[in-house]
Amino acid sequence: MSPDPKRPNIVLILADNLGYGELGCYGGGILRGAATPRIDDFAKQGLLLQNFNVESDCVPTRSALMTGRHPIRTGCRQSVPAGFPQGLTPWEKTLAELLNQHGYATAHFGKWHLGDIPGRYPSDRGFEKWFGIPRTTDESQFTSTLGYDAEVAELPYIMTGTAGQPSENVCVYDLEKRRLIDELLVEKSNEWLSRTMDEKRPFFLYHPMIHLHFPTLPHADFAGTTKQGEFADSMAEMDYRVGQVLDHVDHLGVRDNTIVIFASDNGPEFRPPYRGTAGPWTGTYHTAMEGSLRVPFIIRWPGKVPTGVSSNEIVHVTDIFTTLLSVAGVPKPEDRPIDGVDQTAFFRDPVNTKSTRTGFVFYIKDELRAIKWEDWKLHFVYEPKVNQSTGKLESPYLFNTVRDPKEEEDVLSYNTWVMQPMMKLRTEFQRSLKNDPAPPDPLKD
């Protein structure tokens, strides 16, 4: 553990497909069938962001988190089926690699989804230890699906690995293991945290959970507890698992010098019966609507981040990379464009300080879908529901996300001035792409 306040420990917990409207502290909780007391209490201990923005789905967001770069740069544009080239290329520098090179103990317990071949597993990308799934959790349904043939579609596995050694299969990841895996991941994380207490190094624990990704199935201890179905039971379990990690940090006596972040990788699931909610916003992941972009984010850093504060300032997932490097005293890479900006000053004083970001571009795969700037959102392709796009708009739609959170009333005709800062932002970003070409899309080769 780190006794040096200039090199704080870091615990990053990432929920999967957790929409803005699910947690009690974001207006959900019991209204969604399951109270979330542990996360709600955690929100009171730090800063809650109401305008934290991510990418369109699992892979793009996780790549942006690990590299501080938009996925259009890294080639991690979308989730790719097993058997196709995927993940972060060797020349990308991950958050774990940079922290580890500067003395941090690093571990990953959970869902990776940034590479499933030797050279691209977490233990190849800066994590000294890892345990979890290399891709996504819907694969847990494979072995129970009528007609599934392991000879033509790879078996899904829970895996483990240590830096410098080959990663290995632990067991087949099936529906039985799906119900057990979040419990197992907490056990692995807490065991690792206990072991690091004997080291004089700061630690970085990355704990990307499996809940609430479909199939959203709770552990037997939580099945039926909410009386509102398996999705609500899984929310109750997710809340409990987060509490277990928080309790262990406190038990080890490292709370005061540990940054703990809880966030989601994208907006809610759209497939029934596991459909989630984005609360006041429209849309789910795989769209450019606010329901896709805005997700929960809470940060606790005792004595550094004030308690019981919420903010509507814009923060992007790429900013977490840059900010965590900054607080750890680790320089960011200078040999490539880094899209994340340092939000340390804002996190420390969110009442009197503005975010260092005013907006960002939003791509889905290789298509620019929208630009967000201050209270405005410009859509080049309007898709309020997945697979219901009418294609590129002849004239973009402009929405004010404060006055029109559902993004229903186009106001471009009498707010054309907004195009100036937005087009400047787009032009600057696209100019930088010319000198920073991304790897090809593996599904288009």
TrEMBL record:
Coiled coil: none
Gene3D superfamilies the UniProt entry points to: 3.30.1120.10, Alkaline Phosphatase, subunit A
Keywords: Calcium, Hydrolase, Metal-binding, Signal
SUPFAM superfamilies in alphabetical order: Alkaline phosphatase-like (SSF53649)
InterPro entries, alphabetized: Alkaline_phosphatase_core_sf, Sulfatase, Sulfatase_N
UniProt keyword Nucleus, yes or no: no
GO molecular function: arylsulfatase activity; metal ion binding
One of the Pfam families matching this protein, by short name: Sulfatase
Domain (Sulfatase N-terminal) ranges: 8-330
Cofactor annotation: Ca(2+)
The family this protein is said to belong to: Belongs to the sulfatase family.
Protein name listed in UniProt: Sulfatase N-terminal domain-containing protein
Organism this protein belongs to: Zasmidium cellare ATCC 36951
